[in-house]
Design brief:
The protein is of the alpha/beta class. It has helices at about 40-55, 75, 90-100, 110-115, 120-125, 170, 175-180, 200-215, 230-235, 240-250, 260-265; strands spanning about 60-65, 80-85, 105-110, 135-140, 140, 150, 185-195, 220-225, 255-260. The protein has a single domain, classed as Rossmann fold, CATH 3.40.50. The chain is built from eleven helices and nine strands. The strands form two sheets. Strands 2-1-3-4-8-7-9 form a seven-stranded mixed sheet, with helices on both faces. A two-stranded antiparallel sheet has the order 5-6. A hairpin with a 5-residue loop joins β5 (about 140) and β6 (about 150).
Length: about 270
């Protein structure tokens, strides 16, 4: 009895085309950040870095971050950067830009920093029409120092220094920075965006790009306020923090364009 053995042809392997859909921006270092889970800073860092890469300006960009949650931003951005005293980033950025007008200079600031101790600095930088870009992250509390009430804390919000909730009759009302700066002649771009949903995050990146474009075109001072999450000091989960932005912060801080120079629309 003869047994026939059928030889099978080896399957033909075809190369699967791989498409690169994402890689770390060159303007970001390959380091883990110190931010809490759910904090918006990491995602905003990435957006800033992506815009810098897309505009091809990394080699001539200087970042300035003051004391605050983003105090170590100089470690995370792969570009020339420096640290300023609390609230003084606009002043340092002004000096850098005036000494090196060929450089693209941006500040990265939180609300406790920019709107409180740095309120005078940001006000006069805008009044002078300094050719700098400001990325302003508003999470409504002093994030790094323990969650105290900030100038941006919304009415009724509980913090470590307003445990009964912010009382506007005795503690004042929240400050609205883009609306305050927009009427100034030197301001070219003043907008507010939010990080509470993916669709809104896409708008954040577009606004960051426009703010840098304002500086590239030399049309004046630009600022993007970004509503970000602080789950640790809000005492909520990262998911609930996004809902908090949508349900509590947006009614007080509506997103929108408060000033867009006509030259940026061309």
């Amino acid at each position: 009895m003869t047994t026939m053995v059928m030889e099978r042809e080896a399957p033909t392997l075809t190369a699967t085309p791989w498409e690169l859909v994402y890689q770390r921006p060159a303007a970001l270092t390959d380091l883990p950040t110190h931010y809490c889970p759910g904090c918006s800073h990491g995602a905003i860092h990435r957006m800033v870095a992506e815009v810098i890469d897309e505009l091809g300006i990394r080699e001539r960009t200087i970042g300035v971050a003051p004391v605050g949650c983003a105090v170590f931003a100089y470690k995370y951005f792969n570009l020339d950067s420096c640290e300023a005293a609390h609230g003084r980033a606009p002043a340092m950025a002004t000096g850098l830009k005036r000494v090196r007008p060929d450089r693209i200079v941006f500040t990265y600031q939180g609300d406790g920093d920019l709107a409180s101790i740095g309120g005078n600095e940001i006000l006069h930088a805008a009044l002078r029409g300094e050719q700098i870009t400001v990325i302003f992250v508003n999470n409504a509390v002093y994030g790094m120092t323990g969650g105290q009430m900030a100038p941006t804390t919304i009415a009724g919000m509980k913090t470590t220094s307003s445990p009964m909730g912010r009382d506007v009759l005795t503690q004042g009302y929240p400050i609205h920075i883009p609306e305050l700066l927009a009427p100034m002649p030197g301001v070219a771009y003043a907008v507010r965006r939010s990080m509470h949903a993916v669709a809104e995050m896409r708008k954040v990146k577009k606004a960051i790009r426009m703010a840098f474009q304002a500086q590239l075109q030399g049309v004046g001072f630009s600022i993007v306020e970004i509503l970000g999450a602080c789950p640790t000091n809000w005492h909520v989960s990262p998911t609930d923090a996004l809902d908090y932005i949508r349900d509590r912060m947006l009614p007080e801080y509506p997103v929108g364009d408060f000033k867009v120079d006509a030259r940026l629309r061309d």
